[in-house]
Amino acid sequence: MTTLANWLPPSALHSLGWTLLHFLWQGTAIAAVAAVLTSLSRRASARYALAVGALVLMLAAPIATFSFLASTGGSTPARSSEETRPMATSGVAVRTAAGFSRPSPSDALPLLVEAWLLGVAFFSLRSAGGFLLLERERRKQSTNVSDRVLAICRTLQRRIALHRTIRYCECAWLQAPAVIGWFRPIVLLPVTALTGLSEEQLQSIIVHELAHIQRLDPFVNVFQICVETLLFYHPAVWWLNKRIRAEREHCCDDVAIALCGNPVEYARALTLMEEWRSAPALAMAANRGPLSERIFRVLGLKATGTGIRGIGLGGGLLCLTAALVAGHALLGIAYPRPIVHAGASSLAPSSRTRFAWAAAFAQSSAKPAVAPAPATKPSPAHPSVEPELAGGSYIDGMKAAGLGDLTADQLIAMKIQGVTPEFVRGLRDQGLHPTADDLVAMRIHGVTPEFVRDVRGMGLNPDQDQLVAMKIHGIDADYVRGMKEAGIHADVDELVALKIHGATPGDVRGLHEQGLQPDSDNLVAMRIHSVTPEYVRDIRALGLKPTIDDLVSMRIHDVTPEYIKALQAAGFKVDVDDIVNARIHGVTEDFIERARKHGFKDLDLEKLIRLKDLGILEAPADI
């Protein structure tokens, strides 16, 4: 027993040690499922919810495992005294399936638990020190913001419908706005942001931080830190937390754009703050997360590697399979299979039944002393692949197809997924030279030589990854042909993006009927923001002729035909820019009517927007 772990009872120590080992495969399996589900989700909020749910499962899995093992007296491989006693009295010799005795894995559990306790202590001290340092800097180097900035913050807080007590402070020790605190949050606005950003950019960044508070992200962040502290040894925990933080920033970006309405200026603000980048890891900062990915997403453009995004599905399935295999192997280590050599007849009937298969295995696998026994066919109830491998037919077939030096894991995975030499040769006939891992992924997702031939017949030349992505998203020759006939001549990555967002040849033809000629990028942006041919027709019926960019902007800000009709009924002769601007600032027909009741009857739209922004017609609020 080690120094740090000697205060634990032996049963609790063993249960905790086996719990830590079992979480290696449990955490991998949960992360693999999360990767598959998030790959299938299109909305950032859905991916965020799935990732947070997976993190909760990661914490619940070891708790449930420890509770189960503790209730059964620990997960030691030793048998109970009742089972061991008859074996000892009957002269039974028991050894492991490998034919030799070996030390129990339980002997190393105290060292494992001690290492885990040291790691938890280290990460706990690191997190506590970070929180204390953050609070110290906040108290020493932060002051209240000016009245002008406070008025902007309060206005934005009302517009986002956030009814909480929030303090706004100015500081010089940060380079990007951030949120700290849980029950009484504080928004920290650095001097660099107050002086280096335009008012419009500053407002969007402040809305981003308020979105963190509204979504209770600080509480989720501290939960992530707790899970990282307890399960620090598993890479899947760190990967999942990184994914959660990235999707959290995407969700808040969506809120900021929806409220402030200028994706270009918001992207410029992110770029500037990336240059100033410096924010504590324990705070919610607006410049957190990969910059290029966020900017592409904010602008509605396709990022590099969009076509390979679906590979996460195949990778997740492979990781899940590996985790389950590893879990099975770990259970085999924890409970080694016994082999009975003598005296089996003196065992109790239940014991004889339990160990009969082991005795048979020992007899059939023992090396004969004089001459080998005649070969026998495997039992139909227990088929074996060893005769095939011994004959070398599968391995020789793969070598003949151009795949040599394959590992046992690769051969097993390929055999399970039905990768045949004929399948490999068919792909090579199409000019592809996939690796073993590529072949497994292609087989899982149904990429056949016939599919490759049909796709290439449409003038495309995708690689292995792109073929898998096309198959995952249901892109076939008919879809490619339909898009080309509709005038969209896209490459593979663009076709994948179009399919992901549900663009069809019928959509393209409908837009053509409305006088629009979108390319693939335009079509993706229009699909993302639900710009349909019906929406375009309804807008044009009101006398407006917006461009594709205008339509996307109108849809982003929820400009509906009914809203335009209301403005026109109020006597305003507005163009697209006026309508979007009015919508951004919350000018509604109700607000126009309220302004007229206060005697403002001949105001133009710009003055109405000023009245709205300053809250002149609003009821007094306790600030």
Topology:
Elements: H1 10-40, H2 44-71, H3 81-89, E1 94-95, H4 109-141, E2 142-144, H5 147-159, E3 167-171, E4 178-180, E5 186-190, H6 191-196, H7 199-214, H8 217-230, H9 235-260, H10 263-275, E6 284-285, H11 291-298, H12 311-334, E7 339-340, H13 349-365, H14 386-391, H15 393-400, H16 408-416, H17 421-429, H18 436-444, H19 449-456, H20 464-472, H21 477-485, H22 492-500, H23 505-513, H24 520-528, H25 533-540, H26 548-556, H27 561-569, H28 576-584, H29 589-597, H30 605-614
Parallel strand pairs: 3-5
Antiparallel strand pairs: 1-7, 2-3, 4-5, 4-6
Helix pairs in contact: 1-2, 1-4, 1-9, 1-12, 2-9, 4-8, 5-7, 7-9, 7-10, 8-9, 10-11, 16-18, 22-24
What does this structure look like?
The structure is a single chain. By secondary structure, the chain is mainly alpha-helical. The protein is built from 30 helices and seven strands. The longest helix has 33 residues. It is flat. The two termini are 61 Å apart. About 15% of the residues have low confidence.
Task: Count every helix, treating DSSP H or I runs of 4 or more residues as helices.
Answer: 30
Low-confidence runs of at least 5 consecutive residues: 75-103, 284-288, 303-308, 336-391
The rounded Rg comes to 32 Å
Estimate what percentage of residues fall within beta strands.
under 5%
Q: Please tally the β strands and state the result.
A: 7
Order of strands across the main sheet:
2-3-5-4-6
Biggest pleated-sheet summary: 5 strands, mixed
Gap from first CA to last CA: 61 Å
Kindly state the percentage of residues in helix. Answer: 55-70%
Overall body shape: flat
What is the average of the pLDDT values? 77
SSE-based structural type: mainly alpha
